[in-house]
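Notes on consecutive records. When two proteins share a document, each keeps its own sequence and its own token line. Never mix them. Below: protein one.
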Amino acid sequence: MHTHRGAGVGSDLPGCPTESRPASRYALAWRALKGLGTVLDQAPAAVHDVVRDRGGAPPAFSDRKLPETADQVAVGTAIAVIAYEPGHPASQEVFDWILEADRAQYTQDGQQQGRRIDRWRPAGERLTARVITSLNTTMTFPQQLRFGSAMPHPRWPAHTKDQAHRRAAMIPALLWPSWSMRLLATGSVDTTVPHAFRAACSTYLLIPGTRLGFAAAGRLLGHQAPRRDRRIIDRLFQPASFTAPASALAQLAHALDAHGSPIDYARRRRLLTRESLRIDHRAYERLCWDHGRKPGAASRQRHMRAYLLDLPGVAPADHVVDVPSTFIAEYRKFTAALPAWLRGFLLDQARANLARHNIDEPVHWEPPPHWVTDVDWPGVEPDDVDRTAFRDAISTCKTTTEAATALGMTPEHVRLFTALSGMTAPEEEAAPRARGRLMPLQGELAPERLRTMYDDQGLSYKEMAKATGCSNTAVVSALTHASIRGRQRDRPGTVTRPWLEEQCVLRGRSLRGIARECGMSAGDLRKLAVHWGIPVWTGLTRPLPPEISFLPQPLAPDLHRILTSKISFETLRLLPQLPGQPSLCAAERRLGVRDIRHPLLRIERILGFTIIQRSHPLAATDPGQRLLARIEHLVQSAA
């Protein structure tokens, strides 16, 4: 077993010059003189005392480089000494005022923290660290992590890309269970995506000391939905509670750099995949029968494979398994309710998979808790959990939620502690499902009333819906419930081409309605229509216009496609008059229409050929002549 180490920690603020008392005091004095001219009204009493001792009026200071007069040097130095010496009673108050004077030069405070801190770096490590700590409350959560502002010793983000990759090799896809218990608040917790919180925390471990963004850090850990994970954190961590998790994650990240990890997670992510996993199914089946359990269906196999990727810290289940959204809830129940014999079997299988790739590492490891100090944990400390009381609660309670209430935890804390302790949590209570015999309908939808309207009076679904005040769907469901068969319309014993063409083309009926009448599926009926070349109404088209709906003969397929699209019958009537016109613009003027060009183009796209050649004068193509002849015949029939 080896220890995978990151880059050394080095000085508190890598990239900053070593401490220089003159440089630090100059940085404070220069900003103090600027503050006398911009935010003097906000200055503390100690600053006013210095100004009063030097004559009562603040010295004018406009240069951005160096003080010019003795008064400027004296006043600036006196204020800088107060702010620089921590033992002075007004030190912090004056220092905060100088920071406010420096902030006044920026218009967007929250987005300029990096630039502000960078301006202080020439002043040395100690002063820059103090600036970072003072700005902690004005920073966003990622900024607090990046600069370590909530830590006892902040750090300037000076890690290189290689150092970030080395740290990523020491971080699992999901944060370790014990650290997740400490960071997950015991109050109202959003667990709509169970693994998202742990995945986001692991991603945030790559932010301290680096310039990585959240999405780039997530990709280093193999996460496929980093934005979703970050939204979960934004809902759980409010600005008022940033300090504890920011301090803990930043300290843990830098401790990993200093002490290393016995596990190379980057190698595991590269070698352990869905395709490379192996499970001894024969041994699993024998073990199931020995414990009086059935091996389970394919879903159990998916859960086991996901667990074998989750256990060694390779990838969370919702990132590697192509299953429905309900899989995560089922997988959460599976992992929490794992019996000891199955948990031990899967642990042995994880060791075997590591050995197949010549990986001599422990399956699981967690950083020791003493790596992080001075943090008021928002969650539960695993060492403080009474194991006897926990075992009694999960053995007597029926559900995980009930056990969590008895223990004063959230259900997620219970599941995390079962993963740490190897205990088995109670199964979740399944939501009741409506099963059994349907209750008979009453009132307007009573079977006797339905039979009278449908069989005796011969009403249609629409008429029955209007009479009963219900929707068509409710009427059809009520008829099915009452075992009332639909009326059989006059039709041939088998579906023939003339009959189907009459129903689809002439009457403009939908395939679903025809299929319900024939006792066939709409899919089978569609296959027949396609085979016979019969155009059908799909719902994306419209019925035939009323001018020609009475025609005894069915329309030709090309005319039917035109008239069931967005082309009006009036537009179709004008097409035979286009040949011989000088141009389309002249045709529009002579025929008294605003636009004939676009309807013509739409018809040509529908049919797939050019109808009118854009020559001078206009002329019909060969297929266009045949189409225009059919249109003329149709217009004469409808006259």
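Protein two starts on the next line and is unrelated to protein one.
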Amino acid sequence: MLEEECKSCSKGCKDCSSNKTCKTCDIGFYARHDITNNIVCQPCTKGCKKCSSAAECLECDTGYFKNGKVCSECLNSCKTCKWPLVCDLCLQDFRLNDTNCQSCPTGYFLSNSACLPCQDKCAACSSPNECTECKSGLYGNLCHQKCSSGCKDDICDMNIGNCSCKETHVGHYCNKCVPGKFGHNCEFDCPEGCLTCDLNGSCIICNTGYFGLNCHCEQCADGMYGSKCEFHECPSNCFNASCNAESGLCDNGCNKGYWGKYCEKLCAHNCLNNTCFKENGTCSHGCVGGYHGYMCDCPNNCICSGSVSPDGFSSSLLQPIHIGLLIVSLVILILVAVIMGIFLITSYITKQKNLVTGSLGDSITYRQVRRSQDILPSEHNNENNRRQQDAQRIVYQNLADIGNAAINVCEPIQESVYVNVAEYASIQRKQVPDIVEETEDNTNEVVEVKESNLPDGLIKPFHESQKAENVMKNRYKDVCPYDNRRVILKNRESDYINASYIDGYKRQKVYIASLGPTVKQMGADFGVFWNMVWQERVCKIVMLTNLIEQGVQKCDKYWPDKDVCIMYEDVKVTCQSEEIYPCFAVRIFSVEKTEKRILYQMHFTAWPDKSTPRDVHGMIEFWEKLTRIPRFELGPILVHCSAGVGRTGTFLALDILANEGVAEGTVDIFACVRNLREDRVNLVQTVEQYKFLHEALLHLLSSDTSVKALLTSDGAVQHNFQERKLDVDDIHEMV
């Protein structure tokens, strides 16, 4: 058909003059005329190769035979046939037996119309030299190779021999015993103390605390330590005379009156009950009468400042000349404070909100949180709170859905007797001078509210933390990051860590609140923690717990000693310097991965477990020191204690409210804490912490003008940040 363009004939039409006018039909179709007498091609019936009409077949397809005018299907694997059961030719793999097509039985193959047996080790074959299935326990092209004895159900892959292992075996081919097992079938236990042993039961690697020639793995005698128990007795002042089996360190604490890694140092003689913290020697239960300070070395009203000697005692405050200079300085400071205080109080009211604005996010004050006077409890709100707490209890009960381990893996939180601090919540925004008045008057310091105003417990979805692979990474079952605020790790097998983004004053994600790093939750090399520090470009680390408090491990040492370099996975960390003060320590790290960065760690060591700092001045000095340190990275400040909620929340609130107080002249402590709990569960946990927050904030905002200067300086450092290479001397000079 010729037109402006060529078109196909209708289906089944071999030759046509137009789309509707067919001349002849293809094979498998027959011609019929429609009402206009045009030819229309219709398909033949099934099995019919050529037909003259739907009712008459002229030639049949392969596998069909002529049965009158129609084609019927051959049966019994016939390729061609005369009648259903009378075959002429058979399909592949079938042989002609008289007039029937038959397959060979299992274990035989077809050869020249005859069934011949496969080789002995083949369960089925297609030829004498190719097995298609091996007998149990064998594999390979000819099934000549044996599966490992560790293969489950004696079955392995026919081509390469890999398999699913029995419980006692490991390896790609299940040809090795699990640790602690030996024997041809791994049916025997290795001797006590052996981590791994050979097929004969001879120990290859000993467990920690065991030793011996030929690895007989005998346990170290009491008081001995070392990889081969080659060292003498543990230090005599270790608690219960026990120490680390490899290093000899007093990991379980010291006897009363001693401190240090090996408990080799004496507590200060003025410590109450002769007890002090193992890590830094600060008095853990206060001082005997007439002495003050965390080292109990101040006979008068000393403040927490100055450096300490190697033995942990202040060397400067006891010098008579220094004492005289201190008294003169205090008198001058008081006079300056009075003058500047009057100026501050009058200027607070008209102060513009010109503090650091949203370089790290949208500008916000408190994210859609109503002022405290707008959220006094009602019956409706109280009912919602009760329903919310009931729902939380149900959530914890449902943890059993992912196994009993999910319930028992986390410890009960031990920071204090935890209560809802809303019972003592401030009820309105306060002018800074009002805080002074209220804090001095204990009856007006806080107002008891009848019903709970602050959210208590987990109030947002936290599904990621409850996945089976993440439950072990939560130390406390009721301290989990919310899904929408958690730090998500990138380029790792697991993206989970128990850490949350925290918003600051008018800026988003100013802080990260984290669980205190432990080997159990973050791995032996703390790679997950340091990779988070690197990913988020953390500018400072604030640590608010000691490693061990009252014999309980609160946090593991995740940083190197001074002048030591350690690789934490692919992050290289070197401790460049360490300065010890009576109530805190300052460490400078260089952190390297794809570049070299400078990172400060501020470690507050005088916050007793289940309590608050005894002296607010130590915390104020710590905060001022932290604020003076410039930001060498534009990322958040990482803050952690043990659980990352109580002490961490108190410090976060203090820093946020200090910025708010300087910028606005007023603070809303309740709204701040309420807002913090939107980011992470139960930040600021106890009534004591809530009261301490008032006291510390009072000292910060009412003492002198140094707070304003510090915050302005810190903001200037942040916003005028310029990347440059700095050595340790440069850093000390800047600070």
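For the record: Confidence is low (pLDDT under 50) at residues 300-322, 348-427, 441-452, 713-735.
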